[in-house]
Structure formats: C-alpha cells, structure tokens
Recover the amino acids of this structure.
C-alpha cells in the first residue's frame, strides 16, 4: 500500500498541502467548517518542529501569523465567514506591509452566523473587497482534493513571489467531503522559498524597494537589517510618509504587482471549450456538478464545455473573454447570488449571453439542478 | 553602547506634545536596554496605534508598528516563531486595555515571554482627548462633556488575575525607578507588565484642570507611594508603586518545545 495515498477530508488535504509547501507556523481559532485544518496541523506541525497556536480569536490569529512571517516563516490561518470578517483589518495590514501569508476561508452560508454546517460560496466578493481601501488581492479555490492540495502549495508560492497575502476560498462541501488524495513526492510540485536580501550588514537595506523584476527581498526579524514595518503609507525603508509621491507610488505598486501579473496568477481548467455553444463557468465544489453535467450531455451531442476557475482574484478577465468568444450561452454555476457572474459579465463581449445557475439555500447544487436551469436558460431540453 | 546608538536620530524631534510623559518612558526604556547591554538585532519592538505606539519609529530595533489594540497578538507570533528574540510591546491605556483588552488577558494567561509596557495617560490623545477605560468616573473628556460615568479598573490587579508573572507600576515622575522596573521586566522570563503612569497635559490635563506637565508630574508623586510604605498604609487613596508580583511559572514557548518533543517522539497522537 502506497503511504502517499490518503482517503481524507478536503480540510486535511489543505493542511497537508500547506506542510508540503513548507508551512512552519499556524495560528487559528475554531470555527465550522474549517476546524479540521487547525486540528490536523495541531498534530502535524510539531512533528516537524513547526509551531501551532490556538489564539483568543480570529483577529489575533491573523495578527500572529503576520508576526511569524516577519521572522522568516511560512504561515497560515484558517477560518470561515464570521472569522474571515474579523480578520479583514489585519489582512489589509498584510497587503500594506507586504507580508507573505495564506488565509483559508472554508465558506459557509452567511451573512452573520448564517448556516454554519451548510455550503455556500457567498464570500467571493468579501475576499476581493473585505478589507478597506484600494488594494489588489489574490484568491484561489479548488473543486477536488488533489487540486486543494496543489492550489494550497500555489498559494504559498504566490505569497512568497509577490510578498502578499493569498486567500484560499474553499467551501463546506470540499472541506468536509472525503476522497482520495495522492500526496506528491517532494519536488514534484515546485515550492517558492522566501527571497532574502543579499545586502551585507552595515549596507543600507530597502525592504520596500522592488528589484528590477518587481520582487522585494526580505530580511528576517532578528537578522542584521533593522527596519520598520507599518500599516501607514511608508517609504522604501518602511518609515511613515505622507509625501504625495510616496503615497501614490506605493498604492500603484501594491495594485500593479498583482494586477499586472493576472495571467501568471491565473489558474483554470477547461473541458471541451473549442467548439462549445454553451459554456458553464464554475469553481469550487459547484464545478464538480458542472463537470458532471458536461460529461453527461457531451456524449448526447450537446456542444457544452466547462471553464473551471481556480484563480478568482485577480479575475482573469482576458482569459474568460477569449474562452467565451464564440459561445451562445455562458452560464455561471455558483452557490451565491451571482458574485462571479457579475465579474464574467464585465469581462465578456455581449454580456447578455451570461446567465446564472445557482442555489442559495444551503443545499449543494446538483447536476440535476443545473440541467433544470439550463432548460430554462436555453429554452430546450438539454 | 551609548544611549543615542539605540535611537533613530534622524526622526527627532519626536511628534509628542511638549510636556508629554511618553518621551520619559522612551528614555527609561532605552536606558534599561543599555544597562542590559542588549544587541539591537535581538530586540523586536511591537506597537499598536496611538501616541504611545509611535515610540517604535524612534528606536533602532526591528520595529513593527501594527494596528489598534493588536500589538500583543502580532508580538505573540513573533515570539513564538523565534523565541530567542526579545520582544517588547509599548502600548497606551486604550490600545492595551480597551480594544486590546482580550489580547492582553490572553498573553498574560499564556505567560509568553513578552514585556508589555503600558503608558497610562488616561486618555485617547491621538484622536484628541476622548475618555479611555482608565480615565475613571468623574473625569472630563471630549466624549464625556458632562463628566465620565465609566469606572476604571486597576491594571496591576487585572494583569495579575490574568496570569502575568511580573507586574509593576511606576510613574514618569520616577524615571529612574521606571528604568529599573523595565530592566527587571525584560530580564523576567514570562509575561511581564509595567504600568507607567504618564501625563497628557494637552488633553487629560487641560480638560481636567490639572495644570502644567510639571504640576501633573508632581501630582503623580503625591498620589503614589512605594508598596507597603507608611504613606500607603495610612492613606487608602494612595496608589502603590513597585513590583507587585515576580514569580516563576512555565513560559509558553518553553512549554511548546515540550509539545514538539512529545510530537517527534510519537506520543499523544
């Protein structure tokens, strides 16, 4: 029996992916349906001399991982809607201070306490705009455990590459479902390590001055370069500044470093898009049902295809526009009131082609649900 | 190293108002660190938001100026991920005990080796003089124009109840005592709290007609006395100064090392 084959929950797949990526430090607070990530890491991290701490709340959890990232560690927290709301201020701090970190939100139904043990994809726009102020953000998702594992590794890679927080937006179905996971061998998936400065002791180090390639080498707290980290607008040494040029330059940098790399950050999967008249666009657990619909209808001669988004933010608008160019109908399948539908409408030419197939009642959207809605949208018995 | 080697001289003069007590705390803090002969590279200073929190900008350590009330949560991540660092967290009374109260209680409960310095001037200065949880009933503030009805609490008692293993109180009038207490707090292994009663002549003093900064400092001399002193025994109104608690208890990061030991030996899972 291969030791690398597991039959586990998506939450555990995420935790294992984080360990594979090099996670050293986790801080979190219990909340359904994400708690298994914390439970799994409480057991696994100390086995590899990593640190696990259950903080007093989600605010503290988010703050603690930022502190631990600054000492040179790969860090993670995991939560669900209410906890994700509490993390928003510190998440914005990580954006502003350019701290690599990964935040998992295993979505449940909201707003407020909502429907804690049931599925939803209602936090898509919160991931985009949950913290205040103009900013860019990276949000990834996945529909199966192999992809949960791989996108978790990718989240850490993006966090290190761009010095940014990355949000992993899973959902209750993916989080709690059990299925097979094959843990890749070391090196099978590339991991990006922390880029540290080569500036020698005594030489002026600029923690916030991007290199020519846009990356910003870091220096761990405790090492020879002492600098300032702040949530205020700051100069290239990290000291507060209200100089309009500095403020303008920093906000442009924070946004551009993500938005200018939208195609590099874009992860997606496609199925039968080349000749598709109908395209389903989906992500997370609802993409499983969408895929099922396509695999049922294709053999019957329906020209239907799937675009499964794994990067939700920055929204890969050019890719979506291109893939959907020739489709008669674009149907976004999601478990919210059309949060990605809206992004798709803004991305494609002729947005009247864009429809929504959703469920918002805490019940998982099934292939049957999608087909019923397709009949209404398309006007025939697909 | 000379005291000035610990500061970022280019940022002076500091932003604090004339007569503010926070400069005295900065001075004492640096002198205590100088006395201990600590390397600048081994110190991380973490602060939140407010007048007090700007202290971070002036010291040549690894400095982390965070968000309001959460300095101890950030500091917990720094300390736990790299326990060899000395983590010092200066906070204001509102920052530490209102918005940050929960983090304060739980950092104390864990007995994590962090030095918390509460610069208690009984007011929100940065936002212009609103009452804090330590203003006390009967005081005046811009948000208490008809006198404050919010009772205050005793920082020392709360820190001890929450589990801090070193708790001290002093004032900016007693600068040398402040230096010595911060020195002992840094040396202490575990969560240490030093409350430094500080004056805000601009807002608390002016609103409450307490006179000049000098008058306010003199008042701190007259309303406080060493723990157990004759003055303190004879007058229940006197606020005691000194070290209220100094005990050895398991420190959080050291305890987590034992968790790692148990985990790597395959126990308990």
């Amino acid at each position: 029996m291969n030791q690398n084959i597991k039959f586990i929950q998506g939450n555990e797949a995420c935790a294992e992916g984080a360990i594979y990526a090099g996670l050293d430090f986790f801080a979190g607070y219990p909340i359904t349906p994400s708690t298994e990530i914390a439970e799994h890491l409480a057991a696994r991290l100390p086995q590899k001399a990593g640190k696990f701490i259950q903080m007093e709340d989600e605010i503290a959890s988010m703050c603690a991982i930022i502190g631990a990232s600054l000492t040179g560690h790969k860090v993670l927290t995991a939560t669900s809607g209410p906890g994700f709301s509490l993390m928003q201020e510190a998440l914005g701090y990580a954006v502003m201070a350019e701290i690599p970190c990964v935040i998992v939100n295993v979505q449940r139904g909201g707003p407020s306490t909502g429907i804690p043990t049931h599925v939803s994809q209602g936090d898509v726009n919160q991931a985009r705009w949950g913290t205040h102020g103009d900013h860019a953000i990276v949000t990834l998702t996945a529909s199966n455990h192999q992809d949960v594992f791989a996108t978790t590794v990718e989240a850490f890679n993006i966090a290190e590459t761009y010095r940014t927080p990355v949000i992993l937006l899973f959902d209750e179905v993916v989080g709690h479902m059990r299925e097979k996971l094959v843990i890749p061998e070391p090196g099978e998936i590339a991991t990006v390590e922390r880029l540290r400065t080569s500036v020698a002791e005594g030489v002026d180090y600029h923690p916030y001055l991007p290199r020519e390639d846009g990356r910003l080498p870091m220096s761990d707290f405790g090492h020879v370069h002492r600098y300032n980290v702040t949530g205020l607008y700051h100069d290239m040494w990290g000291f507060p500044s209200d100089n309009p040029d500095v403020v303008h330059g920093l906000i442009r940098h924070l946004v551009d470093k993500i938005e200018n790399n939208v195609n590099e950050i874009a992860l997606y999967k496609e199925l039968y898009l080349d000749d598709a008249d109908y395209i389903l666009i989906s992500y997370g657990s609802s993409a499983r049902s969408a895929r099922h619909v396509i695999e049922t209808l294709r053999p019957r001669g329906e020209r239907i295809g799937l675009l499964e988004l794994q990067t939700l933010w920055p929204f890969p608008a050019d890719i979506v526009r291109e893939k959907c160019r020739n489709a008669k109908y674009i149907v976004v399948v999601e478990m919210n009131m059309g949060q990605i539908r809206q992004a798709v409408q803004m991305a494609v030419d002729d947005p009247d082609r864009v429809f929504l197939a959703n469920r918002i009642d805490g019940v998982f959207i099934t292939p049957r649900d999608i087909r019923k809605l397709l009949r209404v949208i398309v006007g025939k018995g697909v | 190293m000379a005291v000035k080697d610990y500061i970022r001289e280019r940022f002076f003069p500091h932003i604090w108002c004339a007569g503010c007590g926070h400069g005295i705390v900065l001075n004492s803090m640096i002198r205590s660190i100088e006395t201990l002969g600590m390397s600048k590279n081994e110190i991380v200073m973490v602060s939140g938001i407010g007048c007090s929190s700007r202290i971070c900008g002036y010291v040549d350590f690894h400095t982390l100026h965070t968000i309001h009330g959460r300095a101890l949560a950030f500091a917990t991540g720094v300390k736990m991920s790299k326990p060899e660092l000395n983590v010092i967290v200066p906070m204001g009374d509102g920052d530490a005990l209102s918005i940050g109260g929960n983090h304060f209680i739980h950092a104390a409960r864990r007995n994590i080796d962090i030095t918390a310095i509460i610069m208690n001037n009984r007011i929100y200065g940065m936002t212009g003089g609103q009452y804090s949880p330590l203003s006390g009933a009967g005081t005046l503030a811009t948000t208490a124009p008809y006198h404050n009805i919010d009772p205050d609490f005793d920082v020392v008692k709360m820190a001890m109840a929450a589990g801090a293993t070193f708790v001290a109180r002093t004032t900016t009038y007693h600068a040398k005592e402040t230096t010595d207490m911060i020195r002992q707090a840094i040396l202490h292994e575990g969560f240490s709290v030093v409350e430094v009663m500080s004056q805000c002549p601009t807002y608390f003093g002016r609103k409450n007609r307490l006179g000049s900064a000098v008058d306010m400092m003199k008042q701190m001399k007259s309303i406080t006395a060493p723990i157990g002193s004759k003055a303190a025994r004879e007058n229940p109104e006197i606020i005691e100064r000194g070290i209220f608690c100094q005990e050895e208890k398991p420190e959080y990061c050291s305890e987590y090392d034992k968790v790692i030991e148990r985990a790597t030996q395959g126990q308990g899972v």
The radius of gyration of chain B is 19 Å.
